[in-house]
Design brief:
By secondary structure, the chain is an all-alpha fold. It is 46% helix and 3% strand. α2 packs antiparallel against α3, α4 packs across α5 and α4 packs parallel to α6. The longest helix has 23 residues. The chain is globular. Pfam families: Peptidase_A17. This is Integrase_H2C2 domain-containing protein. It comes from Trichonephila clavipes.
Length: 225
């Protein structure tokens, strides 16, 4: 890993070069590498030139995570999957639904690859709104309807359960964290409660309806997509 001095000019080009030097072909270190990637995304939005020196605030954001990057050199983890949120704005519930859709595809590919058609899988999400869309019938917007249709084709809706955010270790992939925090969390080992018998799992019940659910329904009624 590069060594920075007080004279080093922190630019978008430098940050991208450092991030690209981290060998993580299948995204195992995503929580720790997410923050600098989000910073680069922010710099793109602000239209910062490649070699322009960053503002003091952006420099501090970068240096905060850079100082701990060296702790990643000896990390060995099992396989995982995550994606950076696209630049096109999407609501949090829609992003949650996209995550459910990706999870459905991944589970289906594993079942097919291992030839285990009768394998029972429980799907967990902390997005109550996405779970409502998956479980309830309704005239949803095109975006929601297409993804709900695919999820229902690949999975059974009653196998989708709700996990409270404070019990969802995978949320670390969404928020990002420092390399040291990532190692302490051991997110790749899954939540501790999942190792217990099912009776000790979260109840899995989807909380009540919300305005966000109805917003997607109203778009159909008004003819707006």
């Amino acid at each position: 890993m590069d060594t920075l001095t007080c004279e080093t000019k922190i630019t978008k080009r430098l940050i991208l070069a450092i991030v690209q030097k981290i060998f993580d072909p299948i995204g195992l270190l995503t929580p720790a590498t997410l923050l600098p990637k989000l910073l680069i995304q922010h710099l793109w939005k602000m239209k910062i030139a490649w070699d322009s020196e960053l503002s003091p605030n952006d420099v501090n954001v970068f240096l905060k995570g850079f100082r701990d990057l060296y702790v990643l050199k000896d990390v060995t983890l099992s396989r995982s999957k995550a994606r950076v949120v696209p630049l096109k704005p999407l609501s949090i519930p829609r992003l949650g639904l996209m995550a459910c859709c990706i999870g459905s595809r991944l589970a289906n590919s594993i079942v097919n690859a291992l030839n285990l058609p009768n394998l029972r899988i429980t799907f967990w999400s902390d997005s109550t709104i996405a779970l409502w869309w998956i479980k309830e019938k309704g005239n949803w917007s095109v975006f929601v309807e297409n993804r709900v249709k695919e999820i229902r084709q690949l999975t059974r809706s009653h196998l989708w359960k709700h996990v409270p955010g404070n019990l969802n270790i995978a949320d670390l992939l969404s928020r990002g964290c420092s390399p040291r925090q990532m190692l302490i969390s051991k997110w790749w080992e899954g939540p501790l409660w999942l190792r217990e018998s099912p009776e000790y799992w979260p109840l899995g019940e989807t909380p009540g309806d919300s305005e966000e659910v109805e917003l997607e329904r109203k778009k159909i009624k008004s003819g707006k997509y």
